[in-house]
Amino acid sequence: MNDELFIPENELTDKLTDKEKEALTKVAQWIVKKKLTAIAIMFLEPMKPVGFVSSQAFLFVEPFIRILPGTLITSCIRSGIGKRDGIEYLISEMERFEKEKGEKK
Q1: What are the tens digits of pLDDT across the range 9-40?
Q2: Minimal CA–CA distance to 73: which of 13, 29, 26?
Q3: What pLDDT sits at residue 13?
Q4: Which of 23, 70, 84, 94 has its CB 3.0 to 4.6 Å from that of 28, i.e. a possible disulfide?
Q5: Beta strands in the chain (DSSP E)
Q6: 21 — alpha (psi -120 to 50), left (phi > 0) or beta?
Q7: Rg of the Cα trace of the chain?
Q8: How confident is the model at residue 51 (pLDDT cuts 50, 70, 90)?
């Protein structure tokens, strides 16, 4: 796995970077695969106004998460959620994957 893929480029911009979008897309795929879409959306919708605060809480626990193998993606998830469009992007990706899943049936 390429570690530099998961290093946030600039956490201070409002726009999501490609790396952050990729990380949030992977989270959305995992949520849909585990059939947690409805619960995740119900949790994330009220979190939109406080996305930055949520990302800072994530920043606090990130060192403990990063000791586990394969968790370098957490930096991009945290910085993506902290941006204005991050949570909305995550929700729209979950909805897109759910729609694709429904069309396959």
Answers
A1: 555 567 898 999 999 999 999 999 999 999 99
A2: 26
A3: 60
A4: 94
A5: none
A6: alpha
A7: 14
A8: confident
Residue carrying the six token digits 């809480």: 57
What distance in Å separates the CA atoms of residue 56 and residue 69, rounded to the nearest whole number? 22
The rounded distance, in Å, linking the Cα atoms of 94 and 88 is: 10
Q: Chain centroid to CA 19: how far?
A: 11
Confidence at residue 11, expressed as pLDDT on a 0 to 100 scale = 52
**Measured distance CA(7)–CA(20) in Å, rounded:** 9
Residue 13: CB partners within 8 Å, gap ≥ 6? 83
3-state secondary structure of 31: helix
Token pair for residue 91?
């929700």
Asked if 86 contacts 51 with a C-beta cutoff of 8 angstroms, the reply is: yes
| AA letter at 23 | A
Quick one: how many helices (H) and strands (E) in the chain? 5, 0
- Vertex 32 angle, CA 87 and 73, to 5°: 55
